[in-house]
TrEMBL record:
Record keywords, A-Z: ATP-binding, Nucleotide-binding, Transport
Annotated ABC transporter domain residues: 4-229
The organism's place on the tree of life at top rank: Bacteria
SMART domains: AAA
One GO MF term: ATP binding
InterPro entries in the cross-refs: AAA+_ATPase, ABC_transporter-like_ATP-bd, ABC_Transporter_VariousFunc, P-loop_NTPase
Official protein name in the record: ABC transporter domain-containing protein
SUPFAM superfamilies, per database record: P-loop containing nucleoside triphosphate hydrolases (SSF52540)
Organism, scientific name: Secundilactobacillus malefermentans
CDD domains: ABC_DR_subfamily_A
Pfam family, one: ABC_tran
Length: 286
């Protein structure tokens, strides 16, 4: 399978810079989390990577080949997004057929089974679907398509808790049965924390974090205790945020901890991915 490399990718809309010189690489057969607040540039980035919109500068290549006007390369990628490329009068089963014509080897068995699991009528016109069922329809196409890289932009939009749980379960089962790369762009960090292997955290059009989940969380710490003791212990460390309750304070530290002697009044615990994300992307924080 192929790898995708993004080099110095910048995107401007008028005078506004949405993406600022991004550099990273996507490897085969991994589940990535593309995490960022609303307006961080996630959807723009995915649209650039699949050649739906032009970049301002930089390159996107697959095994060294540019994606620009390269249908052979673009067939390796599929983007599920809020924007629909299908005629709204088409029925669900017709979109399955159209996708098979475009990509080949569409997994009709999987898509039809999932339609039953989710309660989606295959004869429904996609323009008549509710927000939740429109998302389900898009999920089914993304799961059935034969592409090597599947980009899922807010794949649980409008889904209730049961359907979200079913989606995550089926995603992992499909990944186990047919490994390929999934990139999940979402703001529901807690729900995907146990699914993703690698995180890309984006803020204001720049990549803050590009590393494995375990490697990332190994550097994320919560230091708790009396305010003065906590501030003294974390002085000189990369404190990315804090919370207080009465006289007790928690400083959130990302990075290596000094070999200081830990006071009896202070404790150190691991930070989860959602808490790390919130503190890294809060405006005004480092």
């Amino acid at each position: 399978m192929s790898s995708i490399e993004i080099k110095n990718v910048t995107k401007q809309f008028g005078k506004k810079e949405v993406l600022a010189g991004l550099n990273f690489k996507l490897e085969p057969n991994k589940i990535y989390g593309l995490l960022g607040r609303n307006g961080a540039g996630k959807s723009t980035l995915l649209s650039i990577m699949t050649n739906r919109i032009p970049l301002t500068s930089g390159t996107v290549t697959v095994d060294g080949e540019s994606i620009q006007n390269n249908d052979k390369i673009l067939q390796k990628m599929y983007l599920m997004s809020e924007v629909s490329l299908y005629n709204s009068r088409l029925r669900v089963f017709q979109v399955f057929n159209e996708t098979d014509k475009m990509y080949g080897k569409f997994d009709f068995d999987l898509a039809n089974r999932l339609a039953g699991e989710f309660g989606l009528d295959l004869n429904a016109r996609i323009g008549k679907l509710s927000t939740g069922y429109r998302t389900i329809f898009k999920v089914l196409v993304a799961m059935g398509v034969s592409a090597e890289y599947i980009f899922l932009d807010e794949p649980t939009l409008g889904l209730d808790a049961n359907h979200r749980d079913l989606f995550y379960k089926e995603l992992m089962e499909s990944y186990a049965n047919r490994p390929r790369t999934f990139v999940i762009s979402t703001h529901l960090i807690e729900e995907v924390a146990n699914l993703v292997e690698h995180v890309l955290i984006i803020k204001n059009g720049k990549i803050l974090i590009d590393s494995g989940v375990d490697e990332t969380l190994a550097k994320a710490h919560t230091v708790t205790g009396p305010e003065a003791d906590v501030d003294s212990y974390t002085a000189g460390l990369n404190v990315i945020g804090h919370d207080s309750l009465g006289k007790i304070k928690a400083n959130y530290v990302f990075g290596d901890m000094d070999d200081k002697i830990l006071p009896d009044t202070v404790s150190i615990e691991s930070m989860d991915l959602q808490k790390l994300f919130i503190n890294l992307t809060n405006e005004g924080e480092n």
